[in-house]
Amino acid sequence: MSSNGLTPTAPTDLAAPGLAHVEVHGITRSSFILRGALAAGAVYGVSGVTPFVSQALAASGGGDAEILNFALTLEYLESDFYNVKGKAVGLSGQAKSYATLFGEEEQAHVQALTTVIKQLGATPVKKPTFVFPASSQSSFLALASVLENTGVGAYNGAAPSLQSKTVLAAAGSIVQIEARHAAAIDLLIGQPPTPNGGFDVPLTKAEVLAKAGPLIKT
Questions:
Q1: Domain boundaries, the chain
Q2: Cα separation of 12 and 26, whole Å?
Q3: Which residue of 41, 119, 189, 198 has the fewest C-beta atoms within 10 A of its own C-beta?
Q4: What pLDDT does 55 receive?
């Protein structure tokens, strides 16, 4: 039993164990929500991320700028994963080509979200620091699959809370690219490009936090 009264989940019980070891260092609301989203994905698979993010952002009351700052934090993570970790691992072949292309596109997402947040009169969240548990091409690709699918779930979860149609359209254009990244990586590693079938299975915030809470790094 953990100090918060929840029973920790054994690593072997996790749907996406790689996510449980992604460290996000930062104390902003966006960093906290991102840690929770990654923990939810670790426990339930990426389908568990959507309801967690949707309810967490709705409860925050921060408006479109707060939601976009969460998305920016996620884009920082993905950009850092491809542009920094991808180079450190020493990728080759199609994996290297994907990492280079996807890294450029994730950085473009960072720049686009930063611009929109400023246009809303808000301050873009600072980039946190990340630690990724990948030491080989195979472990990098496995984590890339989970991160990309988690990104799709996060955007889908946040979309209903957006008020501006313009901002919603911008988020929609980004999530489509994230989904294509996920499908490309999944096909490369021999996984189905639609791992949850036609629809993701919704979970309540309480169901996610019951197991994910102990995994959130503080």
A1: 11-215
A2: 27
A3: 198
A4: 74
For the chain, what is the mean pLDDT? 81
For the entire predicted model, the pTM comes to: 0.79
List Cβ neighbours of 128 (8 Å cut-off, separation of 6 or more). 24, 25, 26, 28, 31, 34, 73, 76, 77
DSSP 78: H
- Are 155 and 177 spatial neighbours (Cβ–Cβ below 8 Å)? no
User: How would residue 10 be classed by pLDDT, with cut points 50, 70 and 90?
Assistant: very low
Closest residue by Cα to residue 117 from 70, 82, 60, 59: 70
Phi (first) and psi of residue 20, to 5 degrees? -65, -15
44 vs 68: CA distance, rounded Å: 24
Query: 11-215, what's its fold?
Result: Ferritin (1.20.1260)
